Amino acid sequence: MKIVHINTYDIEGGAARMALGLAKHQRLDNHDAHMIVGRKSLKNDISSRFNPLPNETIRPFCESAKLSYFHFQGSHKLSSHPEITKADILHVHNIHFDYFNPFSLSFLSHIKPTIWTFHDLFPVTGFCMHPGDCTSWSQGCFPCFRQQLNDPHNPNQLLSMRDSTSNNLCSPGPALCVQLKKILYDHCNITFICPSDWIRKQVAKSCFSTMHIHVVHNGIDTSLFKPMDKIEAKLALGLSPETTVLGAVAVHGALDNPLKGGTHLKQLIEHIIHKHSNIVFLNVGSDKKNTSPFIRNIPYMENQQELALIYSAMDVMVHAAAAESFCLVAVEAMACGIPVVAFNNGALPELIVHDETGLLCDGDDTMDLINTVSALIDKPYQRQNLGKAGRERSLALFDFSKTHEKYIRLYLDEIEDRQKYPRPVKSFNLANIPAFIRTPEFIKAEELKTGIKVEKQETWIGNKPIDAFLDQLSPALYKQFEPFHTKAEKVKQIFSLRNAGKLEESLDILNDLIPKWPKDMTLMRTKGVTLGLMGRDEEAIKSLKKCLKAEKPLQDVWLNIADIYLRKNDIKACRYALETFAGIDPNLKGFNHRMGLLCMAEQNFSEAVTYFKIELQLHGAEESLVMLQRIKDTHM
């Protein structure tokens, strides 16, 4: 069977680990499995990247109005991708984080049997993955005050509705996204999967309550995640066998991630180190330098055997997440025989049996968490019994072989059902589709799906699709969307002027916009870059550093700061900026290209070639190809 998985990443994050794990198991079972991703990190052939192709005509408006990912056009071309044309079935995972247009699901699910696993709630909300204490998502996401949830690395991603102010201009985009998803799913042929009963119940509360959903628990490799000698594990990490080791595991580390309970964990550490002696907390996933004798930051690792060793060194694993659709790290720790203390949130009660395989604390009660962990530190026999029972439960319910078998049966049933009962073609009524959705790529994919040529007047409306969309709105909706359109047009004008060398004029527009949108750090970044191009380097860096200190920091401005230092030939400062960002997201588009330019400035051409090749592999960047050719022509 030829199986194609679609996901944002090929290794980073829970969805990627599940997709990759399935693909590996499927290959071992003599199936032909492949991953198509938005961001490729693996160097082997199990995954390949496609070009997201953002449409620059509509991109500023979609980003400003929080119309999530409708400006990406590359996924509309996947219907003719060679891996997909050969596939027997498609398995969709995460489609969010800047690479995939949701409407592509209609085209793909018509040409191939398709299943979609919901790894979070993005498929049924207008914007966010974990709504937290927001209730408007179940009624259609309006009003939406929590729009920063789209950023997985934003330290304020758990902003409460109560923390929002009436002065924030709230986009109606998420509410429109819900309406568009309703239209979209009515024109798909997809079987939906949830990794937990909890997330299935959340979907049932939403505007999409009529969805028929299967539940398939995520799985782990229990032959890798297994109990090891605790003393040897501690010694391998340079820890004393007498040290009591607590820990948490999350992308970028749990301590700096409120979604993973960072605030609770910091308070826990503060209390525990004063009550107990010889304590160390392992903050697994963090690239930060170690500055506390009580906290050991351990970077994210691809090697699962190393991760299993780290779990085995823990005496207690603490998971303080506010929401989890499953929780791979809890199951991994249980499989290693480590007791898990967690909040009674999300899917955790499905995984952990309280007082049998772990301990569950009330809601977000920090003191309950502190008291529970503190008591468990003093009870080694209870830790041992909980860990043993957790190992048995993980073997019985969460071994990856069981997950693999369930998905294979689902695949076969889906393929057989599609062959027995061919699905009707569900053509879009283009009059109900906003003008900015009806791009040339959308129309071509719709024609391929239906076999019917679309009338010219139904297609892309010149270069003014946003104007056409606004003209179709009621006066009330027009009033809500118009400020975002005005802003987007101003942003396009800024870049047009900048490209024409009219830097003063572009700066004037920025200085007019920023007071009106004071929390939009992308405008501040654009100002910093513009000042840098004008040679006003100190002002530029000052503006860019404001983005790092903002309520919603833009960490990738380190790349813009590096650009300024490289132009100044300040190699040391440029390297500092890039190495700082390397600990945040070394696979972001543009990072490896800049590292290549830095290496060229240092006359290290062999290392420059390595970085340009990585950029080319990850993002298909033509500018990196140009630099590779230049090095070949002049230095090799």
Automatic annotation (TrEMBL):
Residue ranges annotated for the Glycosyltransferase subfamily 4-like N-terminal domain, each copy included: 13-223
UniProt-recorded Gene Ontology molecular function terms: glycosyltransferase activity
Domain of life: Bacteria
InterPro entries: Glyco_trans_1 (IPR001296), Glyco_trans_4-like_N (IPR028098), Glycosyltransferase_grp1 (IPR050194), TPR-like_helical_dom_sf (IPR011990), TPR_rpt (IPR019734)
Gene3D superfamilies, sorted: Glycogen Phosphorylase B (3.40.50.2000), Tetratricopeptide repeat domain (1.25.40.10)
Domain Glycosyl transferase family intervals: 298-393
Cross-referenced PANTHER family: SULFOQUINOVOSYL TRANSFERASE SQD2
Protein name per UniProt: Uncharacterized protein
Organism of provenance: Desulfamplus magnetovallimortis
